[in-house]
Amino acid sequence: IQRYFVQLTPPSLDDQTDDWARLGRELARQHGLRGLTADLPTLQKLGATLRASDWAVTAVVERDAWDRPDGPPRLVDLLPGDQSDQSWGVAIDIGTTTVTVYLVDLLSGEVVAQAAEYNGQIARGEDVISRIIYASKGDGLAEMQRLVLETINPLIAALARRQGIAPEQIHKATVAGNTTMLHLFLGVPPESIRLTPYIPAVNDWPTVRAAAVGLAICPMGTVDCLPGVASYVGADIAAGVLSSGLAETEGLTLFIDVGTNGETVLGSADWMLACACSAGPAFEGAGVEHGMRATTGAIEEVWISAQTYEPTYRVIGGGPPRGLCGSGLISLLAELFVTGALDKGGTPRLDLGTPRLREGPHGPEYVVAWASETAHGRDIVLTKVDIDNLVRTKAAIYAGFSVLCDSVGVDLHDVDRLLIAGSFGQYINVEKAIQVGLLPDLPWDKFHFLGNTSVLGAYRALLRRDERQRLAEAAHKLTYVELSADNRFYEQFTSALFLPHTDLSQFPSVAETLGKVI
User: Fold this and answer.
1) Are 19 and 55 within 8 A, CB to CB?
2) What is the dihedral angle through the alpha carbons of 192, 195, 197, 200, rounded to the nearest 10 degrees?
3) What is the mean pLDDT of the chain?
4) In this predicted model, what pLDDT tens digit does every residue of 183-194 receive, in sequence order?
5) φ and ψ at 212, to 5 degrees?
6) DSSP3 helix / strand / coil % (the chain, rounded to 5)
7) pLDDT tens-place string over residues 27-78
8) Which of 79, 155, 177, 371 could connect to 181 by a Cys-Cys bridge, CB 3.0–4.6 Å?
9) What is the Cα–Cα distance from 493 to 402, expressed in whole angstroms?
């Protein structure tokens, strides 16, 4: 996206060149820009803009569009006066649970503001299968598209206000997300994704205009949805492979996106295998009674006394707690297990003589914070139902990467680097994640926590055409392994439904902490 300030000579009886040809003539003469094209809505406001701005305008032009590399330049917008000193784009990650938006200064390349919010589609299902089924009924598809736009557009508006610009001044968007999320965002029926042989309608998306999607930026701005791999490994993972550097690494690397869909990639610059498992949104704070995103008021770390079972916790922002974010949930689960407050099956023990462990409305629970300590005046608890959700989530993720390693005859200890992605990935305590069996028991220096690699990949693709090309190449290099057709996944999943695992020999450091011989 480039901006060209141009001063036109007004028409006269001696020069009756039409407005469009006049603009094209001056862009060619002043900037060497030839062969300009435009969409009809841009032409419809052309004459009024030229006259209202006294024939001094800034042409916003898209050159070498991703899906038209040799195509002519396109006039995206025409702005009054000289506005060539600013240019804006957005990078968007549509997660199953959380939507993240970066506002980017396209001239400096800087992320000037960012925001995140729960995906409004959660109201119609917490996982992709539920949403696909909902979208296949009646007006469900249109509703799902509306819900995600009602999440994204207010985020864009808030970021624009923060920067003192109008959303219409944003002229480019790159969008990452899993395959289902991008189908729903673009209003493309996703039904075939969940049906054998699990084939999406589209993996490589053509660019579209913002107005056609309903994205509240410049109506003729370009929306570039990034390429996916398969039904359950989408553009978010291709973007993560790009931004993490996995596609260029020489050593054996395991990339894990700790999110709702539990995607995993194993490989190096020479080859990459990918899989996905329905992990659920528990580690993103959804589906847990007092779960929340990692924002002010979230408990992010917990320590529990092995003698009294009394907790100490750290809250984001330092005030009274409102709930538990993903890192806090992992920390709490690990502390309850290693102190003996939970058994190996994840059941709270009510025979320890502490009021912290009690019978609640949904079964046994642990009280992290009493009502008098919290921001909302209610006890913050972790219930047996919550624990079961967390254990299923960690079991699915562990089973996924175990099967990938087994597929190519690789032992987990052969992995040189383990990259953790996900919106809360950078906050995970490695020791605690190993203790609950979410991560393999490897030396800590092998772990690297990268945060939201999906939005980072979208950001890089927004700024540079060569990065966008590398992302597409990474997507095409990934080989997808369908776990639903692999009995090994169910065997591994069942084995991982305990803390940390049925086979404690896979977790020697945890066995040592527990004082057990393996």
Assistant:
1) no
2) 20
3) 94
4) 999 999 999 999
5) -70, -25
6) 40, 25, 40
7) 999 999 999 999 999 999 999 999 999 999 999 999 877 777 778 999 999 9
8) 177
9) 9
Length of the chain: 518
Residue of 497, 93, 96 whose CA lies nearest to 286: 96
Are 254 and 415 within 8 A, CB to CB? yes
Rounded CA-CA distance 328/300 in Å is: 4
CA neighbor of 458 nearest in space, from 177, 97, 174: 174
Residues 277, 56: Cα–Cα separation, whole Å: 56
pLDDT digits (tens, 9 = 90+) for 133-161: 999 999 999 999 999 999 999 999 999 99
Residue with tokens 């953790």: 420
- Which tokens belong to 26? 């001056």
What's the burial of 5, exposed, middle or buried (CB within 10 Å: 0-12/13-18/19+)? Answer: middle
Q: Do the bridges between strand 323-324 and strand 298-304 make them parallel or antiparallel, or are there none, so unpaired?
A: parallel
Residue ranges with strand state E in 163-294:
170-177, 208-209, 222-225, 253-257, 264-267, 272-275
Task: Yes or no: say if 21 and 27 are a contact pair by the CB < 8 Å rule.
Answer: no
Contact 399, 492 (CB under 8 A): yes
| DSSP β-bridge partners for residue 89 | 104, 172
Contact between residue 323 and residue 285 where contact means Cβ atoms under 8 Å apart: yes
The letter for the amino acid at 420 is I
- pLDDT of 277 > 70? The answer is yes
- Residue 127 gets which letter from DSSP? S
